[in-house]
Amino acid sequence: MTASSVPARSRLPYWVLLAIALALTWGLYASGLAADILRYKKDIAYLIRQHLMLVAVSGSAAIVFGIGIGIWLSRPWLARWAEAAIQAVNMLTSIPTLGKLALMMSFLGIGPLPAIVGLWIATLLPIIRNTYEGIRVVPSHLVDAARGMGMGATAILWRVEVPNALFVILAGVRTAMAVNVGTAPIAFLIGGGGLGELIFTGIDLQQHGMMLAGAIPTALLAVAVDFLFGQAQYWLVPRGVNPLRDA
Amino acid sequence: MIRLQALTKTYATPKGSVSAVDRVSLEVHEGETCVLLGPSGCGKTTTLRMINRLVVPTSGKIFLNGRDTDSVDPVELRRGIGYVIQQIGLFPNMTVAENIGVVPRLLGWDAVRRRRRAEELLSLLALPPADCADRYPNELSGGHAQRIGVARARAVDPPVLLMDEPFAALDPVNREAIQDEFLRMQRTLRKTILFVSHDIDEAVKMADRIAIFHAGRLVQFAPPDELLAHPADTFVAGFVGSDRTLKRLRLIRVREVLAPVGDRTFAMNAPHVSPDDDLRRVAALFLEHGNESLVCVDSSSRVLGVVTREAIAQRLALQDAQ
Amino acid sequence: MPSLSAKRTNVETLFFILHNLPAIGERTLEHLSIVSVAVGVAIITGVPLGIAITQSRRIADTVLYLGSIVMTIPSIALFGILIPILSKIGQGIGWLPAVIAAMLYAQLPIVRNTYTAIRNVDPALRSAAIGMGMSVSQRLARVEIPIALPVIIAGVRVAVVINIGVTAIAAYIGAGGLGTFISRGISQSDIRQLITGALALGLLAIAADYSLAWLQRRLTPRGVAARASP
Fold first, then answer.
1. What is B252-321's CATH topology?
2. What is the pLDDT of residues A27-42, one digit of tens each?
3. Are strands B160-164 and B192-197 parallel, antiparallel or unpaired?
4. Which stretches does DSSP call E strand in chain B?
5. CA distances from A94 to A123, A144, A219, C141 (A)
6. Contact C59/A167 with Cβ under 8 angstroms?
7. d(CA B132, CA B125)
8. Domains of chain B: which residue ranges?
9. In the CATH scheme, what is the homologous superfamily, with its name and number, of domain A5-241?
10. Beta strand B272-273 with B293-297: parallel, antiparallel or unpaired?
């Protein structure tokens, strides 16, 4: 696959994004805030590592459990309970992350653990929903053909159902992970560390430089994660079922 | 080759139990094409799907080559039977070659052998492997996709093929073409084929014998011509259509009723037929020109014989008597 | 955080809630005021924008892409960015930055759903409407929008739920709302406030989601099969 096979359509927005980023950077320098921000270089370096740890642990656990539970709920023998379970998942998804973290704190106290568990739950739910939906809408005649040809249940799942659902599943993972990075700053509030420290302290102390020193890296991180999973969507999903790669 | 013995399938519904298939017994010989025919809901598809155990029979037995299919693991059973469905069912996440290679892979063939077999089947279908093998199903036309669906069913050369209205989703032109191709293929390969259809014309064209179903019961099991000549009851007669004599005429070629010219003479540009034309065309020409006889010529316009109305009537009567 | 026995915690929290109902009510109204203003403005700007971009695929792609970039910015980060800007006009903290941030987050779901819904209106219907002699605005008002309405409401639903979450965080920039229970609960190590805040937020979000889902179903023209796709 060469770079030129990336649809031209998606090249335009990246270009626009770059222009905006440059404009903003220029604005920062012009207003003198840039110097302020750079004072916190060391903090940023340290806190970014903490932040990434929170995201990586809660995120990978969410992906593994989310896809696993989603596949499990899609099994035909669970059909009766699956709808109810998905309703519950939907309800829990709408609860704001701050609320979920608060509950975690009341059960597990403060520190990285409740933060990771809270983020894990928040990231898990959309992935479960997308996985379940994605597999559910795989056309039933494909499963019928697979059965009729003599595929066992495991083969049908991994060679037919999951590949055909993969685009939707990865879309869910992409959104969930971007949300994960975005809500990770709140983890600071319950002792989880991360870039939230700079943001919230900066707001408290009315220090704009400190605030931006936390806010900008978080935003950039979120965009980077979204881009990464967007690429995963592009490359991992087979061409025949990948709208991004319409030949 | 395939023997169904009192095969029954009932479903429990709120209104009591419903018989989708009611004590069906028939036997399909090796190399024979048997069409299961009937209106929708008559049990033909359910019967087909019991053969590869996608549906579990309520009672009755199925014997494949003498072996009771009950005694075989269903998954293994299916790997030895080709299965083609109406929606084709090519997996969109796999290339054409990968699709064809599904059952070979389940049986443990290595990658090289699978690829070679896929290319072999594609060449047989006159689809250049270099072009097609790595395409995805969504890039194919309906006709190509259907052919590849059939190729996929033949990948491990199973002796039996089950086909559930495989050509129903194609437009009429493509359908004719693929039916003809299929018949040609059958003439060389002689597979045992069970073919579900709701189209009497398709059944008459494709079948060695037709099994006609009504409300779950097997009503008649006979070669096409006999079915057309002697429908077993009013349902069959109605299903076959009131133009069944015309349909019968389509089954007979001119060469089968050719008689010597004798002392007849024909004008230079008189209407003529070729030996391979069917009698329905002859009848049409009779009506068009008001004749009762037509000359038959070959491709170089040499006279081969004559076909007369009496000869046709005699032929039909002869088959009636059988 | 000392771990209290679960029963004691539940009872104490119950008492706390009952004693503080007025405060809970006030915070809820604060919360709702931010969300409703933000979503209201977002609908007024977003629906026309969504309709407008159906004219050009390229512009639509760009707008939607920019919108999704905004969505990936964490809400607290967006506050962090808005505060320096707004403090120039003395509105750095409190209600205004909260509303503006919430409105920005509400934009993409509404614009995207409007765009998708209008674009997915069966072209045959559009041709029929044009053939009957409807003008563009008549077509929009009488044919396309009624059909697109369920999906647009689905977008509003997503926007509202997101905004309830964003507004919760806005408590940390002095905007009030139900997030204050949580922030105080953390700073005062008061588990009762934590649970109250979490419960209140959860119930509010679930109630909003379900009532908008009901509205979506009610407004679905009977002949249209609306897939509830957030």
1. CBS domain Like (3.90.1280)
2. 777 777 777 777 788 8
3. parallel
4. 2-13, 16-28, 33-37, 59-64, 67-68, 81-84, 160-164, 192-197, 209-214, 217-222, 272-273, 293-297, 303-308
5. 12, 36, 22, 32
6. no
7. 11
8. 2-90+140-249, 252-321
9. MetI-like (1.10.3720.10)
10. parallel
How long is chain A? Answer: 247
- For tokens 């023997």, what's the residue? B3
CB A213 within 8 A of CB A198: yes
CA angle C52, C56, C60 (to 5 degrees): 70
- Would you kindly state where each structural domain of chain A is located, as residue ranges? 5-241
Interface test with A, best of C4, C72, C73, C161 (most A CBs within 10 A): C72
pTM, rounded to two decimals: 0.80
| Rounded CA Rg of chain B | 23
Quick: pLDDT tens for C138-168.
Answer: 887 778 888 888 888 988 998 999 999 999 9
Give the full edge-to-edge strand order of the sheet including B303-308. B272-273, B293-297, B303-308
Which tokens belong to A211?
Answer: 């605030």
Of all residues in chain A, the one with the smallest CA distance to B138 is A240
Question: Which CATH topology does B2-90+140-249 take?
Answer: Rossmann fold (3.40.50)
Tell me the nearest-neighbour CA distance from B102 into chain A, angstroms: 8
Q: Decide: helix, strand or coil at residue A162.
A: helix
User: What number is the ipTM of this complex?
Assistant: 0.80
Q: Do chains C and B touch (3 or more CB pairs under 8 A)?
A: no
DSSP A107-141: HH-SSHHHHHHHHHHHHHHHHHHHHHHHHHTS-HH
